[in-house]
Records
---
Amino acid sequence: MTLRLVLVGAVLVLAMLPALNRLPADSALHVSDFIVSVTGKWITYAILALAIDLAWGYAGILSLGHGAFFALGGYAIGMHLMRLIGPRGVYGHPVLPDFMVFLGYQELPWYWLGFDHFPFAILMAVVVPGLLAGVVGYLAFRSRITGVYLSIITQALTYALMLAFFRNDMGFGGNNGFTDFKELLGMPLNTPTARSALFYASLLLLLGALWLCSWVARSKLGRVLVAIRDAESRVRFLGYDVTQHKLFVFVLSAMIAGLAGALYVPQVGIINPGEFSPGNSIEAVIWVAVGGRGTLVGALLGAFSVNALKTWLTTVAPDLWLFALGGLFVAVTLFLPRGLIGLFSKAQK
Amino acid sequence: MKNLSLALGLLLWLALPARAQDAFTAALPGLAGGFGDIAASVEQLGALGDPRGLPVLRALQAGQLQKTADGRLLLPGNTDAATGQPADGAGAEAVRLNNRVRQALRGALGRLQLVSPDAAERGAAAEAIFRSRSAEDVPILQAAIAREPDAGVKARMVLALAAAQLVAPNEEAKRDAIARLGAAGTVEARALLIEARAANPSLVTAIDVSIASIERSLSIRRAAETLFQGLSLGSVLLLAALGLAVTFGVMGVINMAHGEFVMLGAYATFVVQEACRGIPWLAPWSLPLSVPAAFLVAAAAGAVLERGLIRHLYGRPLETLLMTFGVGMILQQGVRTIFGAQNREVTSPAWMQGTLMLPGGIAVTQNRLWIIVFGIAVLLLVIAAIRFTRFGLEMRAVVQNRRIAATMGIRTGRVDALTFAFGSGIAGMAGVALSQIDNVSPNLGTGYIIDSFMVVVFGGVGSLAGTLVGALTLGVVNKVLEPYAGAVLAKVFVLVAIMLFIQRRPRGLFALKGRAAES
């Protein structure tokens, strides 16, 4: 009960941030632009953490490639944002984005068609990660690849995607990715209006995702997932189709991650293949581990606290950050198997 | 009769230099005359092929040849060019050059180098003639070939002769030259033949036959070189994956810090090299020395990691994975703090540098060849350690059945620590090999860790034979795909292929059978 109150309080505080940002700069309650944009970014991270927690904490699928789904969602919206630049690019080409003009493209590749429509881009931000997760998950779960093997396969997946997106002839901007976005849905980006709109959209998505995930977790499906996590063979012998259950939750998780990525990119204003790097995915996993997996709320707590620590440490002592992150991995797995949430629930008892 | 001919030959052999000497001294005075005389004399000296012309022409080219008022020529250090005796250099002035002389010098020096005492220089001269070729070179080359003791240099001269004969008017010699160029099978020979094809309509069929034979041998050579590159990449993967095969395959521990142990090994190599730098007789042997050093450093790190951390997480592989990833980060950042983020250079010792030419003109870089040898040696060592030592026996026993091994008096905890240290030590040795072909930087290991995991998964967990086959297959497939798809896409293809492959054989190429397979 206390937990729920804390959660509601936290959401209210978050919801007030953009409003406080509009206060005059000399007001005591004024919140800087930096805080708003950074918190908006963290919210999308928290959604990614939720997605990972659903797969790992409930179904025992430790994906080290969820960053790939996040980045794919980001690329989908990035393509839309690139199309919206229109003739305002450096080269002033009416249709082609700058990097395509630079690379000598004559016309838009077929897979860029449709991305000038916002609904289509959002749809792709969900469908593409979902499809990829569906194919990979089907192949992996069908041949009963579990545990660390699955982790390594998913890590290889995001690694392969990173290498692929680094290529210029993929048609996704290569090394530089997409940037210099101008506007979204008629709102010029980088204005307070756009910032708060994106912020509230992220917050809404976070609440929606939290509601969806906890609904799945509490349903009968969720209980079967927990059973699969704890004793996969036994569940299979009881007559449940383990492959389908795992596939469902993996695809759902990938779709949520894709949406999070779609909200992340307009807020940070850039997407490049670095988002696919295996390190990003595993960092997202540690958010969940720090917060406490299998609790959903723990994932949120972890995402916010680890990223707050990162933002603080990388400005104060950049060299220390990797030590701290590495130490977090060690400390959490050895001493805090249930994460920060575990501390609170122990205190409640 | 025999004695007579021998004596006659000896007489001729003695007379030959004497006659040359006459011509040599006769050609010299022109160098003290006007520009026209100098150029004529230079050409004469070049055509003579007398080795003593070489220092004279070199001095002339460098502007260090001096002439005295009475027409004698002095080399640097005041020796008489004709007699080789010390001479009085008072009042001498430098012989001056103009462009015509310089041009003559270039040709003459190129020809004279054919008689240089240095084999490498003779080879270079043959190469130069091969490129510049003219009909006048034919007799000089024929004379040089008759004298040449070094087989390698001789082969190059024969090629140069063929090139020169192609531009000479003799039809029969041309046919002969075309056949020889065809047998040489090099890109240069092909270019030469294609050039000659237009100029010699009567020889087109012979030239086409030769070109086709060159194309054939070139494609065989390309295939062999791709295979070699693939094998050398494969043995790098093998080295990186062998340690994983022990820790992951045998112990079931996912060690994401494995790449960092490789990196530690590479830095150990760097440290040993720096330590040996001050001791001249030791410096060339720093690399062999760093093999045990790297093994010990990485093994110690592995033992500490196992006893201190991993031990508490047995039976929880996902947590082990995350924890070791964190350890890897700390190691990386630690090394970055100590050694700096920039690349450190580990130089190859002289005996590992250079390129080896295998028969058939297949070029093989020595250090990659050594890596293949090293990889195989380490593999054999690992197999021997597991098969024939007490430690190997205990290790196999613990893998098969931990409890029964313990009741038989095996200290399983100690075996765990030793096994992990062993696997980590192998990673360290992989670092020694990698320091030869890659930059030694804190994130050296990250580039190889995913590939090594793929090797172990592909080859079959817990099987050293699978690791060998997996590593070499992945290496060769990567290199074979590269020309068609580019390095990056080749890697992507391989990753996708492995994922599809696991569909058919989820337990890898060399799956364990029997009871061990069930766990």
---
Amino acid sequence: MSTTIDPPVATTAPPVQHTGRFGAVLNAVAPFAKIGMIVGGVLSVLGAFLPWVTFVLNEGAYPERASLNMFVEPFGVSGFRLHITLLGIAAIVIALLTVPAKHRIVRGLGIGVAAVALLNGIWITVEGGGLGAITAADGTIAFGAIVALIGGLVTVLAATSGGLEARPEWEWELPWWVEWILLLVIFALVLLLVAEVLTSGGQGGVVNPYAGVVFLSLLAALSGALSALSASGLLTWVGVVSERHRVFSVVVLLLCALALPFTGAGTEYWMTVASNIGVYAATAIGLNIVVGLAGLLDLGYVAFLGIGAFTAANLSGAAASAVGIHLPFLLVMVISAVVAGIFGAIVGSPTLRVRGDYLAIVTLAFGEIFVRSAQNNIAGLTGGANAIPNIPPVGVGGFQFNDSITIGALRLPSGVMYYVAIVLLVAFVMLVFGNLKNSRLGRAWIAIREDEDAASAMGIRTGPIKILAFLIGAMLAGLAGAFFAHKTAVVAYDSFRFLESVTLLAAVILGGMGTIPGAVLGASILFVLPEKLREFADYRLLLFGLALILIMRFRPQGIIADKHRKAELADDDPEDVAREGPGALPTEVK
Amino acid sequence: MSESTELPPELEAPPEEVKAELADDMHIATGTREPILEAAGVTMQFGGLRALNEVTMSLKEGEVIGLIGPNGAGKTTFFNCLTGLYTPTSGAVTLRGKPMPQDPSRVTEAGVARTFQNIRLFPSMTAMENVLVGRHVRMKQGPVSSLLHGPRFRRSEAEARDRAEKLLAFVGLTRFSEELARNLPYGDQRRLEIARALATDPSVLLLDEPTAGMNAQETEATRQLIFAIRDLGVSVVVIEHDTKFIFTLCDRVLVLVQGELLVEGTPDEVRGDPRVVEAYLGAPPEEIEAQLHTTEGES
């Protein structure tokens, strides 16, 4: 009931002495930190309102939501201009206020502005064929991108020079019903945000070349806003509150996920995209058991998704399948999981003998063996180059899962039932992961990851436990595979190449190893991006590589960090060490 | 003597009620004082190097044995033979008359726990989780029950947590229970490692240099802790360099030199034995001095 405001940070901190490479610069700027943040914010807003491009791009003006022709539509401040404006104003306001961790918050906002400006600036430059596109050409001038970028950078520099504070830890406890309402509102907002992000820029491809950049720009703006929120300690607080009402949060989140078809994302196309994300998210969570918990690198993991899919395809009654039987979908799922699990145990068995890099090579080889076997139509089970087409949709009674649904006046597009099914499947997989992680088995996996010899000295039979990790991970992928087969109606060997394994692994690492939201987020980003960036298909791997390098450099624990991993990798962040350093007494809010 | 140093409250010996509760939970002591862990003629050969030669040891219930010797004497090799990490070239290790299994996890299951010379905690797990991993071998949770989190699972989990809390209180780390192991001060990491080993309900605990790198206070606290562990009914074997620590702690002391068991006896016997002094410190000072004088005289 009590509302205690207890920020551990003194707001009147003494001037910070910066050391390191940019120490001298930061110390010189430090006295002007506040004015610098305001100037940066003003420049950002100014940049947002200046023209950004000297001519209409070849593919036409930016789509309405991110219009470059703002002065044609005087009231249409939308898209990335709106984002920069909001971030800039927020930076100015917070620079003027006295709030805990204000420099860290403003830095987050500045990073957001700079990222959005840079992204759009580069895009226009590349599309427009040179720097003239964003500066001056044919008597027209457009310095919006450059001014906004400078604004963002000035904000970041000034905020950093002011000294970055530790994140405050709020200990507010509100009446339970207030917290419930709060969580409900927050999760509903998250749902709308997810729908907005998913549909932002529209469907990618030749018809809509701006889909990718609008999507990325929104992501950049969001990550700036989120890092500011996280710096303010509010995100952590919401996490603590939702932990306090665990069951309620889980139920509301599930309902929110099921409500996605009622938002702007409720079209057949987005439902299909969302279902595919679901398939890969479930698979990524399975992989997370093997890689994130047990610490066993698996480079051929997508093979288990393939085994599940081919098993389901053969039991679906499809004309091309070798086994001419048709079993109920739920039974097919169980069989697919079991078959994938058996293969998982077989692949896992070398872990008794080989460790680390050598295991990675073994799993890589297994992945290749699977793809080649499937390509050669081994035992007539995979259809080879012809694939297994025309897999019938899942049906319950007379109802087919790919039918559209009409509830009263509301007509939901086809594919919604698949979406609902995959949400439930992902929820189930999350439950499996969460329960296992917090059990004797999960602790044994983590112990093996940390120190295998010490684990075995604690009485853990490392061999069987490691095989179990492979087995359970493979079963989850098998479940997802059975779903995948029915949803896409075609199972072909080239859906399960090495590249897919790498992407899954990247999803797990990008999102945050060992966490559920991390795997889901990573899978979402990595499997939405190709949809949005169709015309960049050739550069897909390059972009992945770049993203991974950046993540490893700046946030090695992944976007959503496991509390364990976070501490393990926090060494190079001096503030974090000061906070969680040796001998630090536990002060965290529980 | 310096051993009677005043200890800060967090390093004091475990409170009696915690000890009583733990002893009750673990009920290891049978009160028979019979030999538990026996090594008979253990020889370990690495290629041409004979690291251990015919070492024999017998550990009785509730006894604390010290194992000392200069560097390279084969102490850790002997430990590894006892815990199944190495298979002795010849000779036998038996636990309560049964041959010791040749696999570390089975050795632990049989009731022999150990700590490591260089601390090997699970660094990014909390102190509590480290101890819970120690409970692994005594918990009855299959994969299915881990998955379903049914009433039996919750009971076993609650029991394990309860025991882990008691163990953390026993070693004086309650205040760190939610802290990551890697963030604990050095001395506390050693204590946590002992708590983790005790979580496996061992009848024999093998400590490999438990006071390495500790100051006088921490060493004293460790001695009190080992006495308390003995009072639980756990038999203890300690490897140490610090002879003073060993002589004031152990019921019996074994001296290993170059893989051979040189002397075995009570601390007083071993301390007085000229062979030990020579092996450990080289020749007595008078002799060195005498030699120095003769060389001076000659030059």
